[in-house]
């Protein structure tokens, strides 16, 4: 009985994932000063943690986390690419995987599937750049800084990467759908951009003319039945709700100046706040 209880507790512990995104540590160079409690064995960073242009400071932040968590997962946000070309930033992100300082505890989720050796947890991760319709390209280019801050970045590149990542994600979910018949998995998807429009940003921004830069209606079509939870960032709006049978969760800090490094961003009605200790169980 004790052995069974021990196994159940062990499995339960390794189903806990602490989630944070949009820390924006590049604002005032907060890579060393921003702190938060560790409340799970796994840490999931859903993008816009900082800029890969600040490589050594970014690495130091990750090193502080791999010293506290068994595994640290990172999905790249758009701000990770600022000040660099897409390819150069991707190369820097790849270097992180080989950094001895991270002690083999860091996983870059760039069209990556990770299966836990300790539980039935499977994580699928990619940036999932959004899809920008032709009639929204001009307004998105004028309102979104990516096209000025990422070298050689164009709407065509943005949409091409969306198509590649969306196809990869659907393929992996289809594979897991088939595999679940043999060996059930608890599937967690993490992307930086949001998987649907409604409920993923401040209500007053949900249907503005440049919302396609932040979210794409992924959940409205296809079979996502193996997916238990979908974590996202990018919109600076924390939420925990259900869409099309999938729990969608965001825990986003947003732009915070250094003197307010532990402030929680709360909207006008007191909900949708950033919780540095937030954990999901998948």
TrEMBL record:
MF (Gene Ontology): hydrolase activity
SUPFAM superfamilies given in the database record: Metallo-dependent phosphatases
InterPro entries: Calcineurin-like_PHP, Metallo-depent_PP-like
Calcineurin-like phosphoesterase domain span: 16-237
The name this protein goes by in its record: Calcineurin-like phosphoesterase domain-containing protein
Organism: Cordyceps confragosa
